[in-house]
Amino acid sequence: MSASHRRTAVAGTLAIALALSAAACGDSEKKVSANGLEKSEITLGNMTVADTAPVQLAISKGLFKAEGLTVKTQVIPGGAAGIPLLKSGRLDFSISNYVSLLTAGSKDPGFKPKIVVEGMQSAPKTHTLMVRKDSPYHTVKDLAGKKIAVNTKRNIATLLVRAAGKPQGVEFDEDKNFVEVAPPAMEQALKSKSVEAVQAIEPFGTQMQQSMGARMVADLSSGPTADFPIAGYATTEKFAKENPKTVAAFQRAMLKAQGMAADRKVVQDVLPTYAKGIDAKVASTMSFGTWPTTLNATRLQRVADLMQQFGYLDKPLDVKTFMATSAQ
């Protein structure tokens, strides 16, 4: 080999070595910057309602940051809307009501959700059935055959109404009795008499009482659905398997935030900073649910069992198959 060729070969070898070294350093720096997480920047499907107060606490109090996470939130109109975004990978995590999530997971072979954090549980008057002040209807039984507004059919809203009707001998039909209306538009739906009742969540129930004198005919967070699991934060089985440290970090941050949410004053203060229509006055008078700080299969099994009772599921479902591993 000539001297010229030798110099060229050596130069090429050095260039390759330097490139490999730079790549290795880049990977190392990436891992350090992400605190060892597989993915340090995540997108979360979220709703600007009282239920998601812990998300805002985790952001504002730096709990995500402390776990090495940068969280971008994407507002979704309802939990069901987050499911196709999870499936497509456009969301890494999303809030979803359990009825929509378990229905999709049991009926769609291509979707395997994993519940990472349990969200809000119902409490007295967090979910109500409301009518106009001058309505002739005073009980759930009076609403048999009438039109009731819900945010989405075949989800937690309709399940709660149907569960309240059954002890009174009332069977509500998903298509004939329920009308889909966005929660902020339910007050107008009552005023216009396009519906006879609305399934209200907070703060909209409190707002309707204050603004138009709307009257509660049933507290849907009582009896068989007292302290009922409403929604949770989920990812896909694929994401959980590929990013276990990221999932654990998200879980730890959220559970810390939910522990903070046990203090009503903390929730009252954060709500007006992000939730539409919730000012300090509404926040001080509205009803709040509770936020668990553990994953509990027995608690979530209540949802699956009630779903089967009302035909949302064709057969018994073990919720453990939809639950992620608890963070260590």
Give me the side-by-side strand order of the main sheet. Answer: 2-1-3-10-4
The biggest sheet, with number of strands, parallel, antiparallel or mixed sense and barrel status, is: 5 strands, mixed
N- to C-terminal distance: 60 Å
Please write the string of helix (H) and strand (E) elements: HEHHEHEHEEEHEHEHEEHHHHH
Poorly predicted runs are 2-34
State the share of residues found in helices, binned by percent: 40-55%
Mean of all residue-level pLDDT scores:
90
Q: Beta fraction of the residues?
A: 15-25%
Number of strands: 10
Rg from Cα: 24 Å
Give a verbal description of the structure.
The protein is an alpha/beta fold and 328 residues long. It contains 13 helices and 10 strands. It has a 5-stranded mixed β-sheet, sandwiched between helices. A 5-stranded mixed β-sheet has the order 7-6-8-5-9, with helices on both faces. α6 (156-165) links the parallel β6 and β7. α2 packs across α10 (244-260).
What would the keywords be for this entry?
328 residues, alpha/beta, 5-stranded mixed beta sheet, 13 helices, globular, disordered N terminus
